[in-house]
Amino acid sequence: MEAFRKFLNKQGKHFHKGGKLEKLYYLFEAIDAFFYSPDKVTRSTSHIRDVMDLKRMMVTVMVALVPAIAVALYNTGLQANLAIAGLSTVPVGSWQRAVISWLGIGFNPQNIWANILHGALYFFPVYILTLAVGGFWEVLFASVRKHEINEGFFVTSLLFPLILPPSIPYWQVALGISFGIVIGKEVFGGVGMNILNPALVGRAFLFFAYPAQISGDKVWVAVDSVSRATPLAQLADPLLQFGTSWWDAFIGFIPGSMGETSTLACLIGAAILIYTGVGSWRIILSVLLGMLATSLLFNVIGSDTNPMFQVTPVWHLVLGGFAFGAVFMATDPVSAAMTEKGKYLYGFLIGFLVVLIRVINPAFPEGMMLAILFGNVFAPIIDRIFINANIKRRQARHVNG
């Protein structure tokens, strides 16, 4: 790393003011800051509030996502290999299958490495494309506004592929992350100014613009000739036979978005975020309580025509990306509620809305994406309510004192 440090120092003169590449300074600064701590120092007395800076926070979130990524690689390949094993011949037309055939690994779902490699050939191209296209927009807006590129994009670029189906067209990946970065963040002023989670904004755009590719049955298993609904969609449709065990759903061995299926992986990530203080346990807990209260209420009410009324809290927990959304999306420090009491109401609102959407409107069976976006919209109002209440209490104490 010392050689790389010297290389960056040597090239830095070309990117600083007066250099031939000064317009790309913010790209150079982003690369330098990603690998090393900034070398800038204060010229006067400084006040240290916390050792947790933005880079450490983003790195912690990325570490917490590692279990979800690992399950994404394995389960994406597992679902594809299981589908291929049920066919008489291996379907052609996929470059991923061509690579695996060329390597001679095969499509045996019992082979762990065959599953991981098959899944990696779907996940990493989507991730690399997301990083490239999203990074382009970040650099462009940073150059125009003349500000440094924030590390927050690295988390967004990792979250976005995890909430997409494995066989999504690459052009839709590029379009979705572009919409999420530009419309979801940059139009509000950039990092720290957005009121919506950029990754979810991109996902919502694709959901409504191209529903056949996002909400249809065929996208959830990475085999063109196989059509299978997600378990939550099976529960919503009485004509579909539900054949998923709770344990498989908890571990994440079910069709779905690449990184959202494993509740276990999300719980490991939650433990990391809560232990380090990066993620709010108040939000995670209140999302869970909101889901629990609302689903139990619908269980009591019941319905002869809508089977979703009978879905219990333990199933809501492990299906439809609930755990992933509660841990990694709802706790976004920019778009979530900021006040301590507001976090409880914000999280409870999301837990309430996700069940309401899933049960009352089965056209959107997953529900978590829309619930969090609604929560993002109401977060500033929720914070304002509690801030005003605190101001009134302080004014009353001042008057009485």
Percent range of helical residues: 55-70%
Number of helices: 18
Low-confidence stretches: 45-49
- The tally of structural domains comes to 2
Global Rg: 23 Å
Structural category is mainly alpha
Distance between the termini: 61 Å
Largest sheet geometry: none
Write down the secondary-structure element order.
Answer: HHHHHHHHHHHHHHHHHH
Shape field: flat
The overall pLDDT, averaged over residues, is 85
* Content of β-strand: under 5%
Describe the structure.
- The chain has 401 residues and is an all-alpha fold.
- The protein folds into two domains: 38 residues, no CATH class; 336 residues, no CATH class.
- The protein contains 18 helices and no strands.
- α3 packs parallel to α7, α6 packs across α7 and α9 crosses α18.
- The longest helix has 34 residues.
- About 1% of the residues have low confidence.
Which secondary structure elements does this structure contain, and how are they paired or packed?
Elements: H1 2-15, H2 25-35, H3 54-64, H4 66-85, H5 95-103, H6 112-145, H7 152-162, H8 170-182, H9 198-209, H10 211-214, H11 231-236, H12 246-251, H13 263-276, H14 281-301, H15 313-318, H16 322-329, H17 340-360, H18 368-400
Descriptive terms for the model:
401 residues, mainly alpha, flat
Brief write-up:
The chain is mostly helical and 401 residues long. The chain contains 18 helices and no strands. Helix content is 63%, strand content 0%.
